[in-house]
Every structure is written in C-alpha cells, then in structure tokens.
Amino acid sequence: MRILVIAMAAASLALNVSGFIDDTRIVRWNTLSGQKTQLVGHRGEKAFMPEHTRASYWQAALEGADYIEPDLGLSKDGHLVVNHNEWLGGNTNVASIPELAHLRTNKTWTDGGKSKTVTNEWFIADMTLAQIKMVRVNQADFKFRPQHFNGMFDVLTFEEYLQIMRNVTIDLGRSFGVIPELKSPKLYNVGRSYPRYYEDRAILTMRHYGWTKISKQIDSSQHTDLRLAPLRPLDGACLGPSVWQSFDQDTAAYLSRHTFTPVVALNQDLPWFFTPKGLDRVSKYAQVISPWKDFFVTGAEAYYKANNITWDAKEIAQMGGFIKPENLAKEIHRRGMTISPYTFYDSHQDMSYLCTKGVKPDSKSGFCPKDKRDEFFYFFAQGMDFMFVENIEEANVLRILYTNELERDQWRI
C-alpha cells in the first residue's frame, strides 16, 4: 500500500502535458548505453487486465511501457496465436465449451533444454484457429487482481497483436517496442513441412508489419497460404524497435542469422549459461541475455541446488565456474550484451526470491530485497537494460524515484 500511495503522488507530479511520465533529465545509468532501464510490459499489463488481450496491450501502452510482450504459439492450421502457455486451460473458459472437450489430451516435449509434460489440457498445436477463437480469456484468480473483464476478450493472433501495436503507436503518438517470444519451437514444428516452419512464419509476419528485415534467405515458398491484412498508414508516426525472444537456444541462433532484429536468449535451466565461456558462446548469436531475476540475487549455484537441478561439475569448472550474482551484470555487459531479467511482479505479490525462503545467496553482500522499492533500486543499480514488469505504473514511478536519486548523486543537488 505504501508503494501505491507513493506511486500516485509521484505520478501526479511527473506527468507532462502529453500524459506520459517525464523523467528525461540527463543522468548516467549503469546500463550498457547509459540510458534509463527500459520497462517491458509482461504479457501486456496483466496486473489489471486479462493477459495478452487487447485491453492488456492498450493499458500497457497507456501506462508508459517501453516494450509490450506477446508469447507466440502455432495453431494446427498454421496461425500464429498469442498465449503464454502452450495450452489454453487456467486463464480461459476452454473447459466450459462442450464442442472442444474431445481435444483435451496430454503432451511431453522439450522446451529450453528441459523436458516438459502437461496433462489434461487443450493444446494450441491441436486446435484450429476457429476453435481457438471460441475461447475467452480470464484474469488469473488472485484476489488482488480485478476480475471485471473476464470473458470479454478472445485469444489474439500474432497479426492482431501487431495491428494493435501499430494502432497504439499512431493513436498515442509514441513509439513502442515489440518483443515476441517464440514458445516451444520443437513442439510447434512437429508435423510441419520443414523444421523451421514456425520461426519463418513469425519472421514473415513481423516483416509485413515493418518490425523486421530478412538478412538470410528463408523458405517463403512454404508460406504461400499466409494472408496478411493491409497496413494502416503510419501518418508520420515511427515504429518502435523490435526484439526476438526464445528459451530455445537453437531458435535464438536461427532468428539471429536470418533477420536484422536483435535476439534475447532466455534461460534459467541451462547451467553452462552462467559461466564466462557460456556467456562467450551466447554472445555469438544473442544481443540480450534474459535470466530469471534470482540469478542476480541468490546466484546460479544456490539456485540450481535449491531446485534440484544437477550439472556437470567438470564442465562448469572448464567453462570458468559459475559467475557470482554481484558480477553477472558486469560480465554480460563486458561482452557487449544487454540484460533483461524477468519477472518483476505487482507489489501485491510475493517477489519469489529463494533468499526470502531461507536459501543463502552466493553473493558477498548477502542482499535479499525487502520490498518492491528495495528490489527495483538494486536492479537499477546493477545496470539492467530492460526489465519485464507487471504493474507498469508502479515500475514507472520507481524509475522516476531512482532517477531523482541519481540526479542528486551525480549533480549533488
């Protein structure tokens, strides 16, 4: 509650005439560019709206997100759709639709180097777009999240998301970044006409909407059925930047080779990733590293021990050993990569750090965040270039407050 009160008071003072928060004072941040940390609206603005819906994306834009994130899947009939999970249960009404009951099944696949099994679910890969469009999205069942908009919105296609992003750019007069995550390529490429069908489908769609250019030939002959809508004229507006994301390192490397769009390498389950030679390897195809945030607090070794994830001790030693959490940001920046940890929740939620559950951090300081302000200021000071956030308004206000502190420190105000 204290953070919310501070947020409301600070925001009322910091809004400029265009309605966006103004924190453009010249101060030097610890990011690779020296500019302020960019805020990525995680699944849009899921703190208030059902995630990955039109309302969620519009609210993220109105609250001043710098990037707005969709998660991608691929329907049985080849349509890219937006949903966090590879299945539709949980945050939708799919279980209440009799016509879809026969599609409930089990699946096992590999995602980001980890085997994944999900049972008794409705999988996007097994459904046509017409079937998916029967489903309505609900807010996650947390008592502190508004439930007023449940059932109002359908599951979007990637094309509809990109249309929304062009619309908010034109209508609000501000550029927003797009940052699609390609979920589970090894699942979605099964049964397709060639092994990179899913990735190329996403590339061609992004290119049509103006957010990527192809740098190496792809097999567009397999996508002659792709019918993309005419573009709304930009009328002088400028599209924001774009970035790809994937937990699948092969897919991340493929996207890097075949487009001019930077790539985010997501990871939390591959131990080699958090060694000096691991970062060297990733830097050959990724421009951005995106780990689970606890790797900057508790650290890799403590994280993997606490989660019963084993590693080859000899391999890790040969790759330089696990990087300590207080050094991880510096090591990533030293290789010319930027950083985008996930996920920074609404202040009503538990922050989900292992150190709050009794796990001792690997760092010398033993830092463990006490509240959202403590958490954000620590990550700002570490030099995070991007942060995946929920409750973007809170995050924006904390960024203003941190900017004020930097200004006082750097200009001795």
TrEMBL record:
Signal sequence, start to end: 1-19
Keywords assigned: Glycerol metabolism, Hydrolase, Signal
Reaction it catalyzes: a sn-glycero-3-phosphodiester + H2O = an alcohol + sn-glycerol 3-phosphate + H(+)
Ranges of residues in domain GP-PDE: 37-328
Pfam families cross-referenced by the UniProt entry: GDPD
One Gene Ontology term from the biological process aspect of the record: glycerol metabolic process
Annotated protein name in UniProt: glycerophosphodiester phosphodiesterase
